[in-house]
Design brief:
Shape: globular
Subcellular location: Cell membrane
Number of helices: 19
Strand order of the largest sheet: 1-2
CATH architecture of the largest domain: Up-down Bundle
Largest sheet: 2 strands, antiparallel
Keywords: Membrane, Transmembrane, Transmembrane helix, Transport
Number of domains: 3
Helix content: over 70%
Distance between the termini: 16 Å
CATH topology of the largest domain: Growth Hormone, Chain: A
Order of helices and strands: HHHHHHHHHHHHHHHHHHEEH
Strand content: under 5%
Membrane topology: Multi-pass membrane protein
Number of strands: 2
CATH class of the largest domain: Mainly Alpha
Protein name: MFS transporter
Structural class: mainly alpha
Main location: membrane
């Protein structure tokens, strides 16, 4: 049996790889129309495809992990990401890039699977600290990946980013095979293929409407059909799942107060996090002449944002100790309060670069505590045989929050824009409204967290199969 510290380290590296996929294209996102000789609406699919794939794959891979082995499914997700990276690396045109980026989205499922593996194989005293550490990688990978991506794109061909992702994936695959033990806990039964298909169709419809609403128009036929159709499919999916003996997701477990409220709080926390990811970099990078920016380069701006990820990592052991002594609910409350303070501070003080450094440190503390608390709250409220699927569902709710933030904050900044050298750029009013929305989401998370039950749900016995 490998040392438990090594298991945690390898799973954390897998988490870093996952979050890195979402910052991979940030340095060149605005240049994609020129690089791919395509319209801006078409190149938006380079980001949208990854988002949709991640949202669909995460809850489904969690259920597959519960049934067929969490390490096995984790390895499959890493392998799919490597294949996608190689396809994108060899692709000069937009179709290959979109296909590759879609496959890269599979890697997002490794975080909830990794957290579930920790519950299965680690000593009980180490689980909370390990989960906090793993959750921190969601921010650290992005904070460290942004400057790395910026340097690579400034000094080399942008396709090198995909080779870098593929190499990282190969390393993660080897480390998982070498270090992470096989879990013996399995959930018996058949996989719900109809439920998986229904969930996929419904999620794609809803998230597509949210993510492309700004470009297509919120009242356009495409958005209305996609969004309302997705909602109808999800309602039918829920009705179906409640009536079959072996559902993809046990909605009765998901409806437990602690699980339901945690998932709703996850939407608000995801919104609050992504609002900061949209607002602060643009404030830092916009030219000073616009009256709303500091004129920093992409690399300099990424270094200002980077402390948020470092803070997440440094606070992870503290988060684990707090959870052991008082329970994870306090972590979620502390995280929400820290985010509220961060947005309030920025609304009052944003005239110097160091003001945004302080704000990002507070953001890091908020997301570090908040994201660490969510899987702990979930796993204290579900049977052990449901941890993969339940953590995957929680990750899905966080993704829903980030997707909504991308659409809403994007719409706000577009509506409060001025023309600068022929290009529309956000105004200080747009940033102010966006900061208020980010802070309001954190307040909502705080209020919801207050009502989450603190009592641990009793364990249930479930059939398991040897791996």
């Amino acid at each position: 049996m490998p040392r438990q510290g090594a298991i945690v380290a390898v799973l954390a590296i897998a988490g870093l790889c996952s979050s890195f996929m979402f910052t991979l294209m940030v340095p060149i996102q605005s240049k994609l129309p020129e690089l791919l000789d395509a319209s801006r609406e078409d190149t938006a699919w380079v980001v949208t495809s990854t988002l949709l794939a991640a949202a669909v794959i995460t809850p489904i891979s969690g259920r597959l992990g519960d049934m067929y082995g969490k390490r096995r499914i984790l390895l499959v997700l890493v392998a799919v990401m490597v294949v996608g990276s190689v396809i994108a690396a060899f692709s000069p045109g937009i179709v290959g890039i979109i296909v590759g980026r879609t496959l890269q989205g599979a890697i997002v499922g490794v975080v909830p699977l990794g957290i579930s593996i920790m519950r299965d194989v680690l000593h009980e005293d180490r689980v909370d600290s390990a989960i906090a550490f793993m959750s921190a990688t969601l921010g650290v990978g992005g904070a460290l990946g942004l400057p790395i991506s910026a340097v690579v794109t400034e000094r080399s061909d942008w396709h090198v980013l995909f080779w870098l992702a593929a190499g990282l994936g190969v390393v993660v695959f080897g480390l998982v095979v070498w270090v992470v033990p096989v879990s013996v806990l399995r959930t018996a039964g058949r996989f719900d293929f109809i439920g998986a298909a229904g969930l996929a169709v419904g999620l794609v419809g809803v998230l597509l409407a949210i993510s492309r609403g700004n470009e297509w128009g919120w009242t356009s036929p495409a958005v209305l059909v996609s969004g309302l159709g997705g909602v109808v499919v999800l309602l039918l999916w829920g009705w179906f799942e409640l009536r079959i003996p072996e559902p993809l997701l046990d909605l009765r477990v998901a409806a437990r107060p602690a699980v339901l409220l945690t998932n709703i709080a996850s939407v608000a926390m995801g919104f609050s996090l992504f609002a900061s990811n949209v607002v602060y970099p643009q404030m830092l990078e916009l030219p000073v002449a616009t009256g709303a920016g500091f004129g920093l380069s992409l690399l300099a701006a990424s270094l200002v944002v980077m402390p948020s990820g470092i803070v997440m990592m440094l606070l992870s052991p503290i988060a684990g100790r707090i959870a052991q002594r008082t329970g994870p609910k306090l972590l979620l409350l502390l995280g929400a309060v820290s985010l509220i303070v961060a947005y309030g501070f920025t609304l009052l003080f944003s005239s110097e670069v160091w003001h945004l450094v302080v704000a990002n440190i507070l953001i890091g503390a908020g997301i570090g505590f908040g994201y660490a608390s969510m899987p702990m709250l979930i796993m204290r409220s579900v049977p052990q045989s449901e941890t993969g699927a339940s953590n995957g569902l929680n990750a899905l709710f966080r993704s829903l929050g980030t997707s909504t933030a991308a659409a809403v904050i994007g719409a706000v900044l577009a509506s409060y824009a001025i023309d600068f050298e022929g290009v529309p750029v956000p105004t200080s009013t747009g940033f102010t409204v966006s900061l208020i929305l980010g802070g309001a989401a954190a307040i909502i998370a705080l209020v919801i967290a207050l009502f989450i039950p603190s009592r641990r749900a009793p364990e249930e016995r479930h059939p398991s199969l040897p791996e």
